[in-house]
Amino acid sequence: MTVPTPTPPKPIWFDTTLRDGALMPGVSFSIHEKVRIASLLDAIGVDAIEVGYPGRYPHDREAIAAVAGEVERAAVCALAGDDRAQIEAVAEAIAPAKRGRIHTYTNVNLPDRRRERATLDAIERSISLARHYCSDIQWSAFDATRADPDFLDRAISVAIAAGAKTVNLPDSLGIATPEAFRQFLAAIAPRHGPNPGAIFSVHCHDDLGHATDNAIVALEMGARQLECAIEGLGARKGNTDLRELVYRVRDRFPEAIDLNLDLLEQTCEFVRAIVRRTPSRPRS
């Protein structure tokens, strides 16, 4: 993570409406709707679109492949745990994409320190495996804000050395206040210097209503990628709202926004209409 700068570079916009957003109760998208939403996000200028979690939800494989065949510019991304079967499921699903990304994650909030070595080995092994299939690898330190700081630092270093191009530091349970999140990120920055070898990302949940504020803090502290969802959809109380964050960033740093805002408004309305009219459909 870089040292804070008064005027941050343009954010990298990562949208997870179609993966994490679909975890919100009462929200479900058909494959046709996922393709349409992904195409709109691509046209808006979003940089990465996370479509599903095929290792856990086999039905996501078809949707990911369908999106991968349509998106022209953005990276098409899917989530995997750190085991071989889940990583290979993502690799297969994103194969049609012009630009694909494998997103792996590892729980770094360990109740037993005796598991640290095995966890670091799993991070190295899973990222190395993912790189056999794709050059663009993102790794998430699940529950990073509650992890032991020294172990988190070691895990980040292992992930970068293994080839992760993006390191995501999620507030997985949405428990961080903006000041606590600032302190958390400030402790990471000096450990990895101005050129850490990877882009740092944040994924903020809104359980306490701080998701957008925490994302702004992260941008100020040097994070480059901001993970969001349309309408703030997501597990429990949801994620950082894409539209809200875009306008908050534009108000503070106008030169940092290079998105089609008119199309963003249309896309938000399209998703709102789906959510209003569509009963929950069980995932398979």
From TrEMBL:
Domain of life: Bacteria
Gene3D superfamilies for this protein: Aldolase class I (3.20.20.70)
The keyword Disulfide bond belongs to this UniProt entry's keyword annotation: no
Ranges for domain Pyruvate carboxyltransferase: 11-265
Gene Ontology cellular-component terms listed: cytosol
GO MF, one annotated term: 2-isopropylmalate synthase activity
Alphabetized UniProt keyword annotations: Manganese
InterPro entries for this protein: 2-IPM_HCS-like, Aldolase_TIM, PYR_CT
Any GO BP: L-leucine biosynthetic process
PANTHER family, alphabetized: 2-ISOPROPYLMALATE SYNTHASE 1, CHLOROPLASTIC-RELATED, HOMOCITRATE SYNTHASE-RELATED
Descriptive protein name: 2-isopropylmalate synthase
Originating species: Oxynema aestuarii AP17
